Amino acid sequence: MSSVEQTLSIIKPDAVERNLTEKIKQYFVNNKLKIVKEKKIQVTKEEAAEFYKVHQTKPFYDRLCNYLSSGPITVIILEGDNAIKEYRKIMGATDPIKAEDGTIRKKYGISIDKNSVHGSDSIENAKKEIEFFFKN
Ligand code: CMP
């Protein structure tokens, strides 16, 4: 069964810095994920901490928040059939070393921290994450 969903993509500082935004967006188009909204922003460490709150007990939390706020990012709402799962498939595993061939993280990721992209992991989190960046 398929259903039209929205999910949040973040093109992280390492990818924006290397001018990979357009190349990464090509993966979306090629995989029938429509770009509904998009903006380039920079978040504060406090905003990053709020966004990644689900990870607050993890040992990498502080590093993660410093990293997300370290430079410009592009946040994008994607829409398509089973968008959450489909986008996670083309992102690949969190750690680029473990990501499958043909995925964004395999091609562009530098490390588990600098893994180029973020994607929502569930319908509930997609709603929260979209709301976080696109309130109005
Ligand atoms: P992301 O999908 O943005 O969600 C949380 C991020 O934490 C993840 O990508 C990684 O970049 C980062 N991270 C750093 N260390 C780890 C780890 N050991 N396990 C999972 N995520 C990690």
Q: What is the topology?
A:
Blueprint: E1 4-11, H1 13-17, H2 21-30, E2 34-41, H3 45-51, H4 61-68, E3 73-81, H5 83-91, H6 104-108, E4 117-119, H7 123-133
Antiparallel strand pairs: 1-3, 1-4, 2-3
Helix pairs in contact: 3-4
The structure holds adenosine-3',5'-cyclic-monophosphate.
Textual characterization of the structure:
The chain has seven helices and four strands. The protein is an alpha+beta fold. Strands 2-3-1-4 form a four-stranded antiparallel β-sheet, with helices on both faces. The radius of gyration is 14 Å and the shape is globular. Residues 55, 60, 64, 94, 112-113, 115, 118 line the site of adenosine-3',5'-cyclic-monophosphate (CMP).
Instruction: Estimate percent helicity.
Output: 40-55%
Number of domains: 1
Low-confidence stretches: none
From the alpha-carbon coordinates, what is the Rg to the nearest angstrom?
14 Å
Give the strand order, joined by hyphens, for the main sheet: 2-3-1-4
Total of helices:
7
- Termini separation: 31 Å
- Proportion of β residues? 15-25%
Largest sheet: 4 strands, antiparallel
Total strands: 4
List keywords for this structure.
136 residues; alpha+beta; Alpha-Beta Plaits; four-stranded antiparallel sheet; 7 helices; binds adenosine-3',5'-cyclic-monophosphate
